[in-house]
Structures are given as structure tokens and as C-alpha cells.
Design a protein that fits this description.
single chain; mainly beta; Rieske Iron-sulfur Protein; four-stranded antiparallel sheet; 11 strands; 47% strand; globular; iron; 2 iron, 2 sulfur cluster binding; MocE_2FeS
């Protein structure tokens, strides 16, 4: 059964940036868009299993630091090769300056 888990404080992430969040055996990225919205997605690239936390956030996507695959952080959709498998996204809520994800 999914539960809400605190991932970080809102001020831990600058606009148009991301951070890594590990919970149990799972790795996530938490993204703060330039519009000040928060998103959560699997944190490992589906192509070469590289951590996306060192990737670049730009124009609604995260670019993998290894082979430049990109993923839409709102939907998890693989947008550019070499990645062709979408990533899972997770519900996010913001309460009292904290970012929570449903895992």
C-alpha cells in the first residue's frame, strides 16, 4: 500500500533543478520546475542504469549525464534516444515547506 514519505524541504531545490532521494532500495529524483512545481520520478536512467541526479534539467526534461537521453519529468516519458523505456512518476504534495512523495 502506497504511503506518503517526506523527501526534502522545498528550499533544498532551486527552481529548474533536482535532487536525489533514496527510500529503501529505490532511488528517485525530485524536480522543482521553473514554474515552482514539484515532481518525482524514478532516479535511474532506463538505458544504462545511471543515476539521473547529476543530469541537467531543461525545458521540462531531465538529461541523463551519461548518454544524453532525456525524460519528461512530468510524465516519465523517454523523449530522446538512447533511452526508449519510460520511467515511473510518483504523486507529489507540498505541505508546510516540505515535499512529500507517495511511494
Amino acid at each position: 500500500m502506497p504511503t506518503w514519505t517526506r523527501a526534502c524541504a522545498t528550499n533544498d531545490i532551486d527552481p529548474d533543478d533536482l535532487i536525489r532521494f533514496d527510500h529503501g532500495a529505490q532511488t528517485f529524483v525530485i524536480v522543482r520546475s521553473e514554474d515552482d512545481e514539484f515532481y518525482a520520478m524514478d532516479g535511474i536512467c532506463s538505458h544504462e542504469h545511471v543515476h539521473l541526479c547529476d543530469g541537467l534539467v531543461m525545458e521540462g526534461t531531465i538529461e541523463c549525464p551519461k548518454h544524453n537521453a532525456t525524460f519528461d519529468y512530468r510524465s516519465g516519458e523517454a523523449k530522446r534516444a538512447p533511452a526508449c523505456i519510460n520511467l515511473k512518476t510518483f504523486p507529489v504534495r507540498v505541505e508546510n515547506g516540505d515535499v512529500w512523495i507517495e511511494v
